[in-house]
Structure formats: structure tokens, C-alpha cells
Design a protein that fits this description.
The chain is of the alpha+beta class. It has eight helices and five strands, in the order αααββααβαβαβα. Strands 1-2-5-3-4 form a five-stranded mixed β-sheet, with helices on both faces.
Length: 316
């Protein structure tokens, strides 16, 4: 799908005025849907992490309830033992009371019946609490297994991203410090390339050194098929002055898709890649100085893990 859209964009900008506004709007709509899909994936990952915290909180609450039930069971055990001892004493004294009047015997028999009823009630309650305790323990064990499995999957994803970051840093070490940085944060990897490494002013044609850096990145990404790749084009706040494009939005998109084509041509699956243009609206520095503007003119390549396994586990 991305390949088709990219080809349509190329045809659209090549033919310029020959392409109808309707075709352009349709292409732009498809592009916005792709960007929205990527944002939803990122949000899904954040929601999953929040759900994990909720499961851990539930687990802590169940542990507390389990401790309280164990305390109640111990109290019932003591009460049961005490009543049983009283009953035994009454049985022993019953023989002595047999010589007493029938009225006294009847009264004592009534007391015995009441004590037996209390004893049976306590025993029944104790059994109910034991069953509830067993059920709670089973539920607690299941929750603990779910949390452990979820944590294991998240840890594996984090380890995978750290390994990927190391592989990318090794592949691009010749370019780091020359307009290129690689950062691992919030479970994602951010590869930032300043335009001085990639493009001439107002151009979206990738230069020789920039192409070499992107191709080396592609050699790593092509071996990691379950990584989602978002390519974001960014500009400074200086308006685009050429005649081919409309504005900085167009320029940022063209630069993003130029990187996408290099990655695709070097073996990165198109299903992994999303291209986005952010224009001048996500600066990383001030636009009041030449140095700040240079930092803002950049390509951001954001690598995120595929969270399908975690989503499947939570749905189960």
C-alpha cells in the first residue's frame, strides 16, 4: 500500500498542475490514515503498559485479601477448638447430671443442643471460608502467572530493542556526531539525521553520504521484521520558496518518502514502514538561530516493537 501511495505522490508532483485536486486529496487522505494508524499503535503500547500496572495493583490487593482471610480462618479455628472443648466437658459432666431432676436434665440438654448448633454453624462457616480461601488462592495464582508472562514479554521486547539499538549504533558509528544520533528511550529507538547529512536546502534528493547512512541502517532493519518503522520529515520555520511543492508540509513529506524508498530498495519490508511529514511544528531547538534551525531540519526514524503478542495475551 505504501509503495502505491509513494508512486502516486511521485506522479502527482511530476505532473504538477496536470493532476486534479481530487486525486491529490485522496492521496493525502490515505497518507493521514497511515499516520493515524501509527499513532494508534503507539497508544496501544502505552495502554498495554497501563493495563499491566492495573494487573499488578489487582495482584497486590488479592494478596492483602488472602492475608486477611488466613487471619479470619485462624480465629475461626480457635473458636471451633474452644467450642469443641466445651462440648467435651459438657459430655463428661452429663453423666453426673443424670441423677439430677428431670427439669435440670432438660435444661442441660437444651444447652447441649444450643452448643451443638453453635458448633455446627461455626464448622459450616469454617468450611465456607476454607473454600473461599482456596478459590482466592487459585485466582491469585492465575493473576500472578498472567503478570509474570506479561512482564516476561515486555522485558523481551525491551531487550530486543536494546540489541537493535546496539546494532544500529555499530552500523552507523562512522556517522554519529556528524548530524546523526541514536537514542533508546520509552521502549523505542530514535535515529535522528540532520539535513546537512541528507539533503541540500529546499531539496528532497538524498546526498551520497546520507544515502550511505540510510543504506547501513536498512541492513540492520531488514533483519528485524517485527519492528515498526516511522519516518518523520521535519523542517525549520523558513517557508519553502520553490515552485514544485506547495509548502514545508509537502517538503517534509517528500523527504520522508525519499528515505522510505531507500529502505525499501535495501530490503526493509514496506509493511513495516510509515512515512510522515511534520513540517516545522515539532522543533527540537529554537528557530531564532542558524544552529537551532539546522537541528530542526531533520529526519526522525522512530523504531517501535510489534506488540501483537502482548495484545493477544491480554485478550486471552
Amino acid at each position: 500500500m505504501l509503495k502505491k501511495i509513494a508512486i502516486l505522490f511521485v506522479i502527482a508532483f511530476t505532473l504538477n498542475a496536470c493532476v486534479s485536486k481530487k486525486v491529490y486529496q485522496e492521496l493525502e487522505t490515505k497518507f493521514n490514515k497511515l499516520r493515524t494508524s501509527n499513532s494508534e499503535l503507539i497508544k496501544e503500547k502505552d495502554d498495554l503498559l497501563a493495563l499491566k500496572k492495573g494487573l499488578e495493583s489487582d495482584l497486590e490487593g488479592l494478596n492483602t485479601e488472602l492475608s486477611e482471610l488466613k487471619t479470619q480462618k485462624a480465629i475461626l479455628d480457635n473458636e471451633y477448638a474452644s467450642l469443641k472443648n466445651k462440648f467435651k466437658n459438657l459430655e463428661e459432666s452429663y453423666g453426673v447430671l443424670a441423677t439430677q431432676s428431670s427439669k435440670e436434665l432438660a435444661e442441660q440438654a437444651q444447652k447441649n443442643q444450643e452448643l451443638l448448633a453453635q458448633l455446627e454453624a461455626k464448622e459450616k462457616k469454617l468450611q465456607e471460608e476454607s473454600l473461599r480461601l482456596e478459590k482466592l488462592q487459585t485466582e491469585l495464582n492465575l493473576r500472578a502467572e498472567e503478570v509474570d508472562e506479561l512482564q516476561s514479554l515486555i522485558s523481551a521486547k525491551e531487550a530486543q530493542m536494546q540489541q537493535l539499538k546496539n546494532a544500529i549504533s555499530n552500523a552507523l558509528h562512522n556517522f554519529e556526531g556528524n548530524g546523526l544520533t541514536v537514542v533508546h528511550k520509552n521502549g523505542k529507538i530514535y535515529v535522528s539525521m540532520e539535513n546537512k547529512l541528507l539533503f541540500d536546502s529546499g531539496s528532497w534528493a538524498v546526498g551520497t553520504e546520507g544515502k550511505k547512512a540510510v543504506e547501513q541502517l536498512a541492513s540492520v532493519l531488514s533483519e528485524n521484521k517485527d519492528i515498526n518503522v516511522l519516518i518523520e520529515g521535519h523542517t525549520d520555520n523558513v517557508p519553502y520558496k520553490g515552485s514544485t511543492l506547495i509548502d514545508n508540509w509537502d517538503l517534509s513529506v517528500k523527504r520522508a518518502t525519499a528515505i522510505v524508498r531507500i529502505l525499501k530498495d535495501k530490503g526493509v519490508s514496506p509493511t513495516q514502514i510509515t512515512a510522515a511529514g511534520r513540517s516545522e511544528f515539532v522543533p527540537v531547538d529554537t528557530n531564532t538561530t542558524a544552529e537551532g534551525k539546522a537541528k530542526n531540519r531533520r529526519i526522525e526514524i522512530i523504531l517501535a516493537p510489534n506488540l501483537d503478542e502482548i495484545s493477544k495475551l491480554l485478550k486471552e
